[in-house]
Structure formats: C-alpha cells, structure tokens
C-alpha cells in the first residue's frame, strides 16, 4: 500500500507543479476554491485538504468562467478564423471531493458525448489528471449519497484517503494516475494503514423516482409556491459544480476581433429572451421550474443520472434559503392529480 506522508505533502505538490499547473483547495481572502499551487501565499492563504469542501468548485479549471475561443478577421461578408485558442497545458486537480468529481463526469457527458465534442473543453480535459480526496465525515449540507454518489469512491485517476496524522493512503485508479504516481514514487512510502469508516449523513434525501414523477408535473402549482422567494440572482448556478450554461459574444475593433464564451445562467430573464421579443420563460416561476427540472429530470432522461451532485453549495449560498433537498421532498409528496 502506498502512503503519502503529510510531511511530504508540500514537497510533492512542488514537484508536481514543475510539470503541470496544480490546483488545490485553498483559502483566498474571505472565500475558498481551487487555485494554482504556484500562486499560494503561505502567510495569508491556507491549503484546505482537511476541510470538507471549499466554497467555489473546480469547474472553472476545465470550463473557464470567461474563455477566448478564436480570433477573426472580417472582409465584407466573409469571415476568416485566424487563430483558435485551445488550451492543452497539463493540469492536476489535487484534493477534489466526490461531488465535484461527479460534476466533471457531468461535464464530460455534456461536452464530449452524443456525437459532438467541444474542442475547447476536450483540450483541457485530455490533459487533466484528477487526484480525489475521499470523504468520510459528511457535513450538514452534504447529500451526495442521496444523489447516487459514494463519497468514499470518487471517480478519479488517484484517490487519497486521510487516515489522520499519519498520512494519506494513495490509490492509483487509471493509467494516467500510474504515470503521475511514477513521477513521485520516491516520495511515497510503503506501509499498511486502515481507511476511516464513513460516518452517517446529517442530511438525507431519496432521489429515486423523482425524475419519473416530474414528467407529469410541468404545469403543477407547486412551482408557483416554491419559486416565490427566488430572487433570480443566479448565485446557485455559479457556485454549482455542474451547471454549464454559457453565452458566446464577440469583441471587434474595426474588421478584427475575437469570439469568447462566458458562463450564463438560466435564472436570468435575458437567457431565454428571443430576438423577436418573445420569452418562453418570462417570470421567476418558469425560470425556477426549468432549473430544477434540468437538475432532476431532463439530465437524468438524457444521461441516466441527475445533474445535482449533492455538494450543498446552493443551499449555503442562496440568500433566501431555497433548498433543493426540500424541493425533492415536496415533489415526492406532491399530488400529481391536481
């Protein structure tokens, strides 16, 4: 059994950072997220592998919040693509939790399957190695198990398991993981340690049957009731590790410029606005309904599992206390004969 001694952790991160951009869970000002190890200021910023999770997910590593796509030159009605900006630099995500690892699986299905590959996402994803940190002590807002995720077995190239003061069990799961492990083999110890036992979840939800029931609830009055406190601020979509709506815009200076894409939110009025002036989701109710149907029904119908990963970030961030666990419970209890 391979063991990563905690005394060697910074040495290993430094070594990995020589060949790739290493992103770790880290405090940054009043927030926390996955940031480059090279940018860490040890006097003000703390590595947060011991924390349950960080406020911002690693979504932006493979799917940046703003991303330049290609430069263009226009000549009359003709447009020439001059340069495509596909970023294939090697990356390592170190310390990701199972909920966020599932979110990357969601993004993989959206951007790389069903007959179409997003070349910008693929360039990053093909060159990203994932080292996941198994969870054994769920927090008060964690409910990944209810969404079909095993927090102790995240989908990753390597899994580390925190055994306490001694160190991390280091488990290699893929060929990509084996290649990375070989680079730091001299820093890993050979030792037998026991993994922790998973503690009970404090928040429990039963997702089974929800997607099927929602098929008959599009016009149900529950959406008017549930959406009353929603402010359409969109914070739930930005902190969510699996939301992937985006907009494409262009910047031009004369006849030259570039196209870029940036995160968008289905909670905004403009998101579904049509050029002719119509809008199929004109009020909060329609936008709220669409978000939760996408999370709990539409994605499941297409890919076989929900888009929600049970990380609990939207519960923490919502300024009016909207809770997706409560919504699932109310859907299960709703009378569909209304």
Q: Pairing-aware structural class of the strands and helices? A: alpha+beta
Compressed to H and E, one letter per element, the order equals: EHEEHEEEHHEEEHEHHHEEHHH
Share in β-strands = 15-25%
Q: What is the 3D shape?
A: globular
Helical percentage: 25-40%
Q: Could you characterize the architecture of this molecule?
A:
The protein is an alpha+beta fold. It has one domain. It is built from eleven helices and twelve strands. It has helices spanning 9-16, 59-62, 98-112, 119-125, 175-183, 210-214, 222-226, 235-239, 284-303, 313-317, 324-333; strands at residues 2-5, 21-28, 31-36, 66-75, 78-84, 91-96, 128-133, 158-162, 167-172, 189-190, 246-253, 256-263. The longest helix has 20 residues, at 284-303. The protein starts with a strand and ends in a 5-residue tail after the last helix. The model has no long low-confidence stretch (mean pLDDT 96).
Blueprint (SSEs and pairs):
Layout: E1 2-5, H1 9-16, E2 21-28, E3 31-36, H2 59-62, E4 66-75, E5 78-84, E6 91-96, H3 98-112, H4 119-125, E7 128-133, E8 158-162, E9 167-172, H5 175-183, E10 189-190, H6 210-214, H7 222-226, H8 235-239, E11 246-253, E12 256-263, H9 284-303, H10 313-317, H11 324-333
Parallel strand pairs: 2-6, 6-7, 7-8
Antiparallel strand pairs: 1-9, 1-10, 2-3, 4-5, 4-12, 8-9, 11-12
């Amino acid at each position: 059994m391979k063991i990563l001694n905690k005394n060697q952790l910074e040495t290993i991160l430094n070594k990995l950072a020589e060949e790739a951009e290493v992103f770790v869970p880290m405090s940054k000002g009043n927030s926390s997220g996955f940031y480059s190890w090279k940018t860490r200021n040890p006097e003000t910023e703390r590595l947060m592998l011991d924390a349950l999770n960080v406020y911002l997910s690693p979504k932006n590593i493979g799917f940046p919040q703003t991303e330049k796509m290609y430069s263009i030159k226009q000549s009359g009605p003709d447009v020439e693509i001059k340069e495509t900006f596909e970023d294939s630099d090697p990356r390592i995500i170190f310390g990701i939790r199972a909920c966020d690892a599932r979110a990357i699986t969601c993004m993989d299905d959206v951007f790389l399957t069903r007959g179409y590959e997003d070349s910008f996402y693929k360039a990053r994803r093909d060159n990203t190695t994932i080292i996941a940190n198994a969870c054994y002590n769920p927090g008060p807002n964690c409910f990944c198990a209810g969404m079909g995720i095993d927090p102790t077995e995240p989908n990753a190239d390597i899994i580390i398991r925190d055994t306490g003061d001694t160190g991390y069990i280091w488990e290699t799961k893929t060929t990509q993981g084996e290649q990375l492990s070989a680079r730091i083999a001299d820093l890993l110890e050979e030792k037998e340690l026991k993994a922790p036992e998973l503690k009970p979840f404090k928040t429990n939800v039963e997702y089974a049957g929800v997607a099927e029931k929602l098929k008959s609830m599009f016009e149900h009055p529950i959406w008017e009731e549930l959406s009353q406190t929603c402010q359409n601020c969109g914070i739930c979509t930005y902190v969510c590790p699996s939301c992937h709506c985006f907009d494409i815009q262009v910047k031009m200076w004369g006849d030259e410029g570039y196209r870029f894409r940036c995160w968008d939110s289905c909670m905004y009025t403009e998101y579904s606005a049509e050029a002719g002036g119509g809008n199929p989701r004109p009020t909060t109710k329609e936008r709220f309904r669409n978000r939760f149907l996408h999370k709990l029904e539409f994605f499941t119908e297409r890919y076989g599992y929900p888009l929600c990963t049970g990380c609990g970030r939207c519960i923490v961030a919502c300024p009016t206390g909207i809770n997706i666990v409560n919504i699932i419970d109310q859907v299960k209890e709703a009378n569909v004969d209304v």
